Amino acid sequence: MSIESDPVLQKIAAGLFALALLHTFSAKQFERLAARSPRHAGLFHLLGEVEVVFGFWAIVLIACMAVFSGGASAIEYAESRNYTEPLFVFVVMVIAASRPILYAVEASLRRVAHILPAPTSVMLAWLSLAVVPLFGSLITEPAAMTIAALMLAPQVFQRPVPEAPKYLALGVLFVNVSIGGTLTSYAAPPVLMVAATWNWDSAFMLANFGWKAALVVLINATLATFVLRRELIRMQPPNPANRPAMPLTVIVVHGIFLAAVVIFAHHPIIFVGLFLMFLGFTQAYDRYQAPLIVKEALLVGFFLAGLVLLGSMQRWWLQPIVSALEPLALFFGALGLTAITDNAALTYLGSLISGISAEAKYMLVAGAVAGGGLTVIANAPNPAGVTLLKRGFADETIGAGGLLLGAAVPTLLAAAAFVLL
């Protein structure tokens, strides 16, 4: 009997998954405990890091497997999982957040913002919430999340800005990135899980999902920008004109590295090799670089690897739910289940169901991407956004309840578009 089919370990894994979810929703409380208990502040700070949660409980799961099935079986299970996505997210985060890439993106968006009929600071935020998430269909969602988060951080995610508008902006960002990757068949993880199996190409995605997603992305971005307009005018973003000039050749080389990593996103040996070359280039031309976000990206990779280990053991109860629902019920089921499990895992389980109808396929993926902003674990790029933006919130943590409320309206708009249009 394999570990994945062991009923005892299945129940243990489900219990640990539930504890990890509870831990995720209560991460903010650990930060408050750290403030009240200086003696154990380090431990509470560690447990309060959302990125640590699933990795921590995955380690507990492996320990339980070693106790019940032996150390060799536990190691075999851990080594049999596919960690390509955590590795890719780590690599693409570091490259996308490099100073030359951000310099080029900000300079381009600022030129566009200058010609639009509103204050530049307002239009720059709108473009970051509207255009950059749609770029996720080309450069992948994790890269789009990284760039958009770093663009928005100086304007929106600062302590002087009230918490409620920040959570709305965060919810819009997460939802827009989740649905903004559906214009192609390779950029959004939940789409990628089914594209080859169901023969969905980019033309199919654009005709059935992409135009609806683009419409909602623009509406969501406009809503958040309107709510934040006074704060955006007050919180002027840094002007790149005040920074040292960036040589075009350096920007081009960074762009080539980013494009190459995206092209080879499913070949870890290749993109890790490219990443090592990228690190060498940044060392050679360090005067044009800012500190790379290696620590932040590693935390996100740790989170996603933990989710892979824990999530793989949830198939025994998730797949029967997915396979038993009718198309419309499947949409709302996927919308809700996405909040408590990665949406790519959910669509992957759907791809294993034989004889699933075309309507059910559409509803499953639509629900999965529409709900991708509800929680930190709902969509693979979300932990990256949390890592890069949490310092702008009270206690330097993002509350699960605040995110859920902030994402509610953007999620409802996305759901309405996918069901009614």
Write up this protein.
The chain is mainly alpha-helical and 421 residues long. The protein has 2 domains: 3-80, no CATH class; 85-420, no CATH class. The chain is built from 21 helices and no strands. The N and C termini lie far apart (47 Å). 52% of the residues are buried. The mean pLDDT is 91.
Task: Note the main attributes of this structure.
mainly alpha, 21 helices, 421 residues, single chain
Helix content: over 70%
Mean pLDDT: 91
Radius of gyration: 21 Å
What's the structural domain tally?
A: 2
Termini separation: 47 Å
Structural class: mainly alpha
What is the molecular shape?
A: globular
The description of the largest β-sheet is: none
Name the poorly predicted regions.
Answer: none
Set down the secondary structure blueprint.
Layout (H helix, E strand, L loop, with lengths): L6 H19 L1 H10 L4 H7 L2 H20 L1 H10 L3 H13 L2 H17 L4 H20 L1 H12 L10 H18 L8 H10 L3 H33 L13 H16 L4 H17 L9 H18 L3 H10 L2 H12 L4 H9 L6 H13 L11 H8 L10 H21 L1
Provide a short characterization of the protein structure.
Helix content is about 75%, strand content about 0%. With about 425 residues, it is mainly alpha-helical.
